[in-house]
Design brief:
about 160 residues, 3 helices
Length: about 160
């Protein structure tokens, strides 16, 4: 029965012939985690502010409920209390919804700012990588040209 050849050693030798600079991957990972951290901060700040708005809305509503549930002498006073409560609830809703809209607008502005900054950083990193690759390629071409010149000189002699 035929044995399947083990290419482990061959593959390791081939990979050793192609050195890979992992610093660009590490830099990309670091910048990605930094962006993730900043985005998480934006989201958590928005969640905290939204929770504060919701809690204040609940407190305001409960305070108004106290006025609504107090006993009245005349039946018309109950209708007036209910009308006042509904009016106040509508005003509170408008105020709190505006506060939520401000939170959403701030999150949107912060997110756009982070994305623009990340894009600029990414472009700068790409430019640095391209410049480094160009330098390394030019050095390799010069080295190969020098080796070829030396080899042709040796064969002529």
């Amino acid at each position: 029965m035929a044995k399947t050849p083990d290419f482990t050693k061959t593959l390791q030798e081939v990979m050793a012939k192609f050195p890979v600079d992992t610093s660009s991957f590490q830099d990309a990972f670091k910048s990605q985690t930094a962006l993730g951290e900043k985005m998480a901060r934006v989201a958590l700040a928005a969640a905290e502010r939204s929770t504060e708005i919701s809690a204040q809305w609940a407190k305001d509503t409960i305070a108004r409920m106290g006025e609504l549930t107090s006993s009245k002498e005349e039946p018309a006073e109950y209708a007036k209390a209910l009308s006042d409560f509904a009016t106040a609830a509508a005003e509170m809703a408008a105020e709190h919804m505006a506060a939520f809209a401000e939170v959403a607008k701030k999150v949107q502005m912060d997110t756009v700012d982070l994305m623009l900054t990340a894009g600029k950083d990414l472009a700068a990193d790409a430019q640095k990588a391209a410049e480094k690759a160009t330098r390394e390629t030019q050095a390799a071409v010069k080295k190969a040209a020098a080796a070829a010149t030396t080899a042709s000189t040796v064969t002529k002699a």
